[in-house]
Design a protein that fits this description.
Strand content: 5-15%
Distance between the termini: 133 Å
Helix content: 40-55%
Structural class: alpha+beta
Oligomer: single chain
Shape: elongated
Number of domains: 4
Amino acid sequence: MRLVRPVTPATEKVRAPYSQWLAEGGLPSYDVLGEVMLQYIEVHKIDPTFDWLEVKAADLENEQATTIRLVIGDAKEMLQGFLQRYTAKQPNAVEIPVNQRIPMEEFFEEACMARVMAGKDGERSDLVTLLPTTVIHFEYPELTSFRKSRAARVKLFLDQGFSLFQQHAFEASLARLQWVHSLDPGNEVAFELKIACLRNFKKMAECVRVFEAWIEAHPDQIEPRLGIGEMWLFLEQSQRAKDGFESILELSPNHPMALVGLAQAKLKLGEDHLPDLRKAFLVDQNYTKTMVERHLDFRSHYPQDLEPMALADIAKRYQVALKRVIERAKLGVLPSHPPETPGGLLRFSQKDLQRYDETLRCLGLEIATTKLAHPEPAKEAQQPGLFDG
């Protein structure tokens, strides 16, 4: 037998509309022994023809989300179907309080209305596009999107996406950012956060798709084009990277990042990269110097002339201070390849080293130091004798 508190004018509030509860500061408490409060219920997936929808929910005792598919028809039947199937899937017997059933029924009523609106030829109401981004959060009502406008939902989901990103909950963050783009397809902040999440996942190929959508939404913007060019370089798609950076230079002929990116792509393709680097150096000397000294990759694909060499040999051959050669090796910009045997010397391609040395000297980032370090002693002037010669 369960003990239920008698209904009084105070507890009669459970029959008030959901919007009234929110206006009065959240849901009322309804103390029933054996009842378990849901944390939230939200849309997980909707059939394009609105024949069914999937909802995801969790309660305070079972925080693992449960997903349930419901046929969109009668709102009361949908509610009863949800309650029966949700409670049946929980390890312990639970019963959802009455004060949470009412807003859920209102939500299912909206789902039924959205199906009607979606079925009318040529008529698409805001309800049809808003419904897939609906969440009712009972524990934290401020996270609820139900009955909120499009603009309010976009702001809510952006805030949630950023907060989840800071918590390293990248999958959850991506889900909320996807809701942002379903409501505001060109939202740039959501594009940036999506890229940040995917980079943390090391999902570079998926970054490409996000950049492509970003470029489609904002074809004149340079930032997403730079981003996709970087992704193509990372994925070793050098020709695609080259084409992308060239398209940026059509929009902005002197863009230093595009010029350096184009030089990197040409390096990988075995083409002449120096004209682009010279131009970038004239436009932004500090940026170009940093990229050449710390980030550009001068290694060619499958070099045939590899030979094991000590760093001291490289310093001597190219007349460079050994200290700088060691620093560049530590930074990873010296075009080295792993040794063939454990404990063996790094292997170098004469062609790659030559290109690297020519680039540094062309930009004035390196000069021969051997002669400077060991200058020949000046000969002392001597007075010729009277009878010499």
